[in-house]
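Consider this today:
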Amino acid sequence: MQPRNKTLYMLSFVFAAACSRTSPDTSSPEPVVEPSPAATAPSERNTADDEIFGVLDVINDEAIAHGEYMKKWAKTQKVKEFAAMMINDHEFVREREKKVRDALDLSATSSRLASDIEQDSRQKLDTMGKIDKGDPLDKAYIDIQVDVHATWLSALDNKMIPFAQTDELRDELEEVRKIVESHYNLAVEMRTNLKTADK
């Protein structure tokens, strides 16, 4: 390479290096792409439906427990029949719900609502155990059934049906509500009849 060409080459190299240090970079920066949570964390199914099934399990268990107690200790035939109906209906509902739950690949998990209903129902069962057998117990049992069924209807209407995330569970809850409402209406009627019989 000739001296003059060599000098021009060196000057162009220095000029280019200087420009690279002093000229602002006007190109758009590469966007920083944050990995989405779905891409980095294992997917988690919303557990609302699992918790609803947990509440249904508690309702069925407690209705059956109350019924079993009164099937043994009730005095009047109508109260015995009501208790037997509670056992049969809620055993049927429990079996049907298990089929729905298995089909949806869900489980029955605990929740504050399930715990509250369970605690209340067990307290009522304890109360029945302290009441004299006969008419006083029959009346107390029916009063309790009016109360717990009203609580269950409220839970279904306000805390379960509106939040069910699958059509299958929503349909099942609507069917359960019909059964609970029929039990409630019958308990209210029986309470009136028991009071009338006292007069």
Summary: The helical segments are 3-22, 37-40, 48-73, 77-103, 112-129, 135-160, 167-198. The chain is about 75% helix and 0% strand.
